[in-house]
Write a structure and sequence with these properties.
Elements lengths: L1 H14 L8 H6 L6 H13 L5 E2 H5 L14 H17 L2 E4 L6 H11 L3 E2 L7 E4 L16 H19 L11 H4 L4
Parallel strand pairs: 2-4
Antiparallel strand pairs: 1-3
Helix pairs in contact: 1-5, 5-6
């Protein structure tokens, strides 16, 4: 298995040299990829308006079948492959949202499953991939994730704020332009 993993890691690293050409809308728009606002706007358009989904395996050039089942790998091997796969995904503007302290070896199973999914390839920007549906009883990262508890706490704080200030949840508590102007 060691020799196979060396070859696979070589293939993964070589795949980072594959450059996705910019979507034609970039040329048509005249958007500047060095302008952060334009980059964010155009990435959104590219992904959600004009984007066609492709399997991650096609985007990256690494076939799903090349990734061994997790039960055939040791924890260090899973950690090594997970790190290499995440680095490859980043090259293609995909960023995985794991809890910060989630071990690399445990990430491998999620990444292997991700390889069978389809997403819109991006020329620029970032596409964050979440593995959580924010249902605390179905947490994919038990013992590592606090997002649901933090979300509940924030919702409770928002409700208390609304009660104290007599505002409804329809965001009418945000200041208006008139509230921000100086009073003379």
């Amino acid at each position: 298995m060691e020799r196979y993993l060396e070859q696979l890691i070589g293939d993964i690293r070589n795949a980072t040299w594959k450059v996705t050409p910019p979507h034609p809308i970039w040329q048509e728009s005249g958007a500047d990829p060095d302008n952060e606002t334009e980059l964010e706007d155009m990435s959104y358009v590219e992904q959600y308006v004009y984007g066609d989904e492709l399997p991650i395996s096609k985007i990256t050039g690494i076939d799903e079948e090349l990734l061994p089942p997790a039960d055939q790998l040791s924890d260090p091997q899973q950690a090594l492959l997970a790190t290499e796969l995440e680095n490859l995904l980043n090259v293609f503007h995909f960023f995985t949202d794991f809890p910060l302290d989630y071990p690399a070896n445990l990430r491998y199973s999620f990444l292997k499953k991700l390889w069978g999914e389809s997403h819109v390839p991006l020329s620029f920007g970032e596409n964050h991939i979440e593995f959580c549906d924010y249902e605390e009883d179905k947490c994919p990262f038990p013992g590592y994730c606090k997002s649901c508890a933090e979300f509940k706490q924030q919702m409770k704080a928002d409700e208390e704020f609304e009660k104290r200030n007599g505002k409804s949840g329809d965001m009418d508590w945000f200041p208006t332009v008139e509230d921000l102007l100086p009073k003379f």
